[in-house]
Fold:
Amino acid sequence: MNEAINRPATPDGEDVICATEGPIGRLRLHRPKALNALNMGMCESMLGALEGWAADGAVAAVMIDHAEGRGFCAGGDIRLLADSGAGDGAAARAFFFAEYRLNHRLFTFAKPTVAVMDGITMGGGVGLALPCRYRIATENTRLAMPETGIGLFPDVGGGWYLSRLPGRMGQYIALTGTRLNGADCLALGLATHHVAAATLPALKRALIERPVAEMASILDGMAEVPGEGTLAAHRDAIDQLFAADALEDILAALEAADSAFAAETLATLRSKSPQAMKVSLRLLHDGAQMASFADEMAQEYAVATRVVQRHDFVEGVRAVIVDKDHAPRWQPATAADVTDHVIDQIFAPLSADAAWSPA
Structure:
C-alpha cells in the first residue's frame, strides 16, 4: 500500500528504507517482488538503524511496516538458505546469526515499537512483528509459521512465542503451519490491535504527528472489534488433540477422533516433514522453560544451523519452491523413524566459538 502521508520518496534499489519522520524511526520493507522476504543486507541495515536510534534522543519510537506490495514480510530468503545448506552452510549460518540478532534487538529495545502486520506475515516477518510492543493486524493479515512444510521449524523466536499461547494452540500452529487472520491474531494476543486497512494512512500520520506519549491512546481509539477468528470454534478440540508432546501421540489422537476437523488436520500433518514436526515440538517444550529470549535465540541458532543442512530442508524447498511439485520425499518418512537420538543431536549446544550471541 502507498500511503498518502508526508514522507520521503521511496529510494529505488533499497530493500529496506531506514529513515526518521518526526520522532519516529521507520523501518520500511521494500522488496515487493519477493513479498518483502528478508535478506542479509536488510537484517544488517535494520539492526544498524536500531542501534543508532537507541542512542538518539530525537527518536522516541520505532515503526516497522512495508513500503508497497501486498505483504508485510513473507519470511526469509529461503532459496539462499537452501543453496547454502546443500553446500557448506556458511551463508545460511551468517544469515541466521544476523537475523536472530535483529529479532533479539527488537525484543529488548527500550523505546516503544510498532509493527503493522498488513498482509502476509510469515516466518521472518513474524520475527520482526512479535517482539514489538504494539502489533497491528488488519483484515488483510495472514500470519503463519509454515516451516514444517519445507523441513524447517518455526524459528525467529517461535519457540518462545508459540509456547506461550493459550492451551495447545502453539503446537497446532507450529505443526500445521495454519494461516491466522487478523481476528485470530487479536484473540490469541499475537496482535495488540485490529485496525481497518483503509485507516492505516491516518493511523500512521497520527503516530508521526502526535506525541509518542499518546501512542497507546491513538491505537486504542482507531482499533476495531473484528468478527470471530477462524480458530475460535476449534480451540477445545485443538487442546485435546494436541495435548501430547510426542508427535506419535498427536497423530494417534487425530486418527482416533471422529470429526472433519481432525481428519483435515491429520491430512495436513501427513504432508509435513516428520523430522521438522518433532523438532518443533521439542522447541516449544524447551521454549516454555527458557529463562530469557537470548537463551531461546541461542538454542534456535544451534538447531537452525543443523536443520538447514539436513535432507528434509533441501528437499522441502525443492518440492515447494523450486520444482513446485508439492511431493517432498522426507527422510525419515515416518514419525517413528525420527529417533530421539537424532533430535538430541540437532539440539546439542554449539561450542563457544560457534555459538550465537546478542549484538
About this structure: The chain is about 45% helix and 10% strand.
